[in-house]
Amino acid sequence: MKKRILIVAGARPNFVKIAPLMREFKKHKRHFEVLLVHTGQHYDFEMSDVFFQNLRIPNPDIYLDVDSASHAIQTAKIMIAFESTVLEQKPDLIIVVGDVNSTLACSLVASKMNIEIAHVEAGLRSFDRTMPEEVNRMVTDSLSDYLFVSERSGLKNLKSEGVNSEKVYFVGNVMIDTLSDNLEIVDQSDILNKLRLTANEYSVLTLHRPSNVDSRETLTEVFDILTSISREIKIIYPIHPRTKKMIKEHNFSGRFKKLDNLLIVDPLGYIDFAKLVKESKFVITDSGGIQEESTFLRVPCLTMRENTERPITIEKGTNYLVGRDKTKILSCVKKILNGKSKKGSIPELWDGKTAERIIKILLTKEGDLISF
Amino acid sequence: MIIMKIISVIGARPQIIKAAAVSRAIVEHNKKHHDYAINEIIVHTGQHYDRNMSQVFFEELDISEPDYNLGVGSGTHAEQTGEMLRRIEAVILKEKPECCLVYGDTNSTLAGALAAVKLHIPVAHVEAGLRSFNRKMPEEINRVVTDHISEQLFCPTQTAVNNLAREGITGGVYWVGDVMYDCILFYTKKTKPIEHEILERLDIRSKSYFLVTVHRAENTDDSTRLCNIFEALNEIATKDCPVVLPLHPRTVKYAQKHGLKFTNYIKVIQPVSYLEMVVLERNARLILTDSGGVQKEAYWLGVPCITLRDETEWIETVESGWNILTGANKHRIIDGVRHGHKQQNISPEVVYGDGNAADRICEILQQSKIVKTGGSI
User: Fold this and answer.
1) What are the tens digits of pLDDT across the range B293-346?
2) Both B321 and B240 in a single domain?
3) Most buried residue, A76, A234, B29, B216, by most Cβ within 10 Å?
4) Are B210 and B238 in contact (CB under 8 A)?
């Protein structure tokens, strides 16, 4: 009997994570019947056809058509829509990835329906509950039957939360599967030409967290920091529409535009963005995934947050946790420009074979169901 | 004067009783402390809201009616939880409380906690840390999730504290005792005047009947389990010791559909109010139940109990010898009723506090507020 699986993705980073799983599942069609559910949590420019083609992801089998809204409303809509999907499709297992509202909502639904849950990227903790992602992570992990962990800190965190170690598997990072799969294509991107950039002579900025961009005070600090950095090196800022709106609301648009060495560009596709990061001098970010991607690409990363749920990127990788501490940031920038920043090494099991490991575990676990 | 605004989210009957204990303690607290007051907004999700039933309930328990009735009716788990999330979020945005108090383990508990935590409102969970270790129970999911996102966890027992520690939750955990025990102590006094009338109306004598409650989906929606339980009841009920069975009309119909017949010694009655229930519990010879609260009430009232489930979150009642787990096994139920109980007379205070759990909850809430505002006690 084939194992029926619903694999859930809702936001852009989710699709980056499920891409290698979908590809790997294709090799095991005898054992698994996999349907891709797109909750529609993000449905905008980022989720264009190009994005799907870029990542070679098949079109979603089921589209729940839930768009953005407040946390509660969005979670509610996803729960209600996903519950009827589960009733209709009767899966044996659902796979959720990351830490968005879709991850939480679908896990809650599945757990109430006694359907097994696999969480890919389990165990990460920032220990900051004001981050909605942290709540989503904790809840999802508390409900999951398979917890696939991307770095060793996850093992420790889950252990201290009393999660039965038999459910926990250290498999590595699926996002790195996607990146390493695509490295050749990334190298062919002509984004540097398009933006008239020279490799190693610019930095990349991504900033979108409410804690950085939602208030006048923090935007003032951020602007001040960017002004100082821009005196040293060109900054390329692919901007999220939501952030653009916040900047406009707080009357910062004009000031950002006036900064000579800051180039604001539209959001980029996966491949172009990876190329932009790969060839940059360093990255400034408050995102989760970019900390990992820059570590893999061995590009220094300044994380403008007070904490990270991905500590391996600091211990082993190229990441520095700098918050909005201007002195710290400028001293890091100087170190990088002088070629004295940490070189970093690639974390354990970030080898492009994570999806393969996950599917192998699912196959072995189903040993009694599946005749080889 | 420092005023702390909190919202209490309730939805099912047992939660109203638990919240009643806390509300009463808040009123007392505000009388005593003129500098620090707690302003409680009560939000009823409508999870179980039968207008007649609930009003009687509020009057009988002498508690104020909810400030908000969200009117979320029944539905699937996701529909119900989802609708609650939406409507609770709107109330929180409007009221801007400093704390969201949730009770027990229903969908209302889960929805209240999730809506609040995402809006950065600290969640306090009354009856935290209970575990049946059976993930097939929706209540268990609600408990686990709520505990993991709560900032203050008010535990009824030391077992609950230990359960939380095993899940790595140690900060903000308080063993305050059981608010249901507070309630039993408080309301038992009030039942004295109605006791005689109730027994007379039902034509039963004290200590000469079995009281039975069956309401959990695992029993009422499973015809095999329900048949087993009802067959056992037919077996134990006699002329001298009948079975009193307050039953939801839905369950009656379900039973009839499956060809179940009751002997003449089984008195099926309409669902009863909380005070009537306390009277029926106290006067029963023995109680058979699948409810969590009734197991404890039996224990506190010194009535032997048979639990028609395969596990219990109230393990202390079993360890003390007052409660026996039989599942829905006909022979084990009958055997348990006939010669199962070897009471050891452990005083309920040892495990469930001293009847002042709600007072402690108020004090802790107030102190956390004072700490946050930099004041001194």
Assistant:
1) 999 999 999 999 999 999 998 998 998 889 999 999 999 999 999 987 776 666
2) yes
3) A76
4) no
- Is the pLDDT score of B14 beyond 90? no
For residue A301, the surrounding DSSP H or E stretch is: strand A301-303
| Alpha carbon of B27: minimum distance to chain A alpha carbons (Å) | 31
Asked if residue B377 is part of any domain, the answer here is no
Catalytic residue among A28, A31, A71, A208: A208
List the domains of chain A with CATH numbers. 3-172+350-365 (3.40.50.2000), 183-337 (3.40.50.2000)
pLDDT at A370: 43
Nearest residue of chain A to residue B88 (CA atoms):
A72
Query: Which residues constitute the domain of residue B291?
Result: 189-351
Alpha helices by DSSP H, B119-270: 138-149, 158-166, 179-202, 217-220, 223-236, 249-257
Tokens of A9: 């993705």
Tell me which chain A residues have a C-beta less than 8 angstroms from the C-beta of B151: 129
Find the CATH number of the domain harbouring B173. Answer: 3.40.50.2000
Residue B6 lies in a domain: yes
- For B200-237, write each residue's pLDDT tens digit: 999 999 999 999 999 888 898 888 999 999 999 999 99
Residues of A in contact with B78 (CB under 8 A): 79-80, 82-83, 108-109, 112
Cα distances (Å, whole numbers) of residue A281 to A52, A185, A299: 28, 21, 7
- Residues of B with CB below 8 A from A70's CB? 89
**Chain B interface includes A220 (CB < 8 A):** no
Residues B15, B146, single domain; the answer is yes
CA pseudo-torsion sign B235, B241, B247, B249? positive
User: What's the pLDDT score for residue B323?
Assistant: 94
DSSP assignment of A121-148 equals EES---S-TTSHHHHHHHHHHHH-SEEE
Mean pLDDT of A169-177: 98
Same domain, B272 and B246: yes
Please give, rounded to a whole number of angstroms, the shortest distance from the CA of A365 to a CA of chain B. 20
- Is B184 domain-assigned? no
Q: What does each C-alpha distance from A120 to A58, A63, A359 come to in angstroms?
A: 19, 21, 11
* CB proximity list for B222: less than 8 A, separation 6 or greater: B328
Q: B47-50: long-range contacts (C-beta < 8 A, 24 or more apart)?
A: B47/B11, B47/B12, B47/B72, B47/B74, B47/B80, B47/B84, B47/B106, B47/B107, B47/B108, B48/B11, B48/B12, B48/B13, B49/B11, B49/B73
A129 lies within 8 A of chain B by CB: yes
Which of A80, A143, A160 has its CB closest to that of B82?
A80
Interchain CB distance below 8 Å, B115 and A72: yes
Give the C-alpha separation, A182 to B357, whole Å: 59
The complex scores an ipTM of 0.90
Q: Which of B76, B83, B114 sits opposite A83 (nearest CB)?
A: B76
Q: A265 burial class (0-12, 13-18, 19+ CB within 10 angstroms)?
A: middle
Q: What are phi and psi of A216, to 5 degrees?
A: -60, -40
- Residue B246: enclosing H or E segment and its boundaries? strand B243-246
Mean pLDDT over all residues of chain A?
93
Whether residues B282 and B233 share a domain: the answer is yes
Residue A208 has pLDDT above 60, yes or no: yes
Structurally, chain B folds into a number of domains equal to 2
Contact (CB<8Å) B141/A112:
yes
Q: Is A119 annotated as catalytic? A: no
pTM for the model stands at 0.91
